[in-house]
Amino acid sequence: MPERTKAVAVRVLILVVCLFARGKYVEGFAPPPSPGMRVVRLGDVASELATALDVSRRVEVVLVPRNDLVVSVEPSPAPEAGYRITFEQQFFERLNDDEISAALAHELGHVWIYSHFPYLQTEALANEIALKVTPRKTMESLYGKLWAYTGVKGNIEELLGPEEP
Q: How far apart are CA 141 and CA 38, in angstroms?
């Protein structure tokens, strides 16, 4: 085979591999999604989790420069509009996608409690609800980052219940 033909064949092979390769190897060369892209997906993730947790109220997710609670939920200014989950921007940027989903699930647990009278609003109950859609290890990781961020450590057993064998 002439050298020119070999060179063309190698280039075509490389092109084919690049076009058809999928998975983590190729993704590893792509830049990570920008914080802006992660923010855009927040509403979709919150909607999916709300559906899974049977929360029928609309939920909006916003990032703010400062939130005394770091992550919180409250009724929207127009209560019939649903609820607003607020993340402190700096804390949000420290979380991976799974931890963001866990935080959203926890806050949606509070929304579920609001809409199911006569349940008492507690962190433990919000976590119990979140654990229906989030692995315990992810919740533990989220709390670890929250405690490191705030400098205040809590009791994971009180918040998530005893770990099942």
A: 19
Answer for the pair 70, 91: CB distance below 8 angstroms, yes or no: yes
pLDDT per residue as tens, the chain (165 positions): 566 555 444 454 343 333 344 443 444 444 454 555 567 789 999 999 999 999 998 999 999 999 999 999 999 887 678 999 999 999 999 999 999 999 999 999 999 999 888 888 899 999 999 999 999 999 999 999 999 999 999 999 999 999 887
Place of tokens 């935080």: 103
User: How many other CB atoms are found less than 10 A from the CB of residue 38?
Assistant: 18
Handedness of CA 60, 36, 49, 151 (dihedral sign): negative
DSSP state of 56: -
What is the token pair recorded at 50? 């709300």
Q: Is 60 left (phi over 0), alpha (psi -120 to 50) or beta?
A: beta
Reported pTM: 0.77
β strands within the chain, DSSP E: 59-64, 71-75, 83-88
Q: Cα-Cα-Cα-Cα dihedral of 14, 15, 21, 22, to 10°?
A: 140
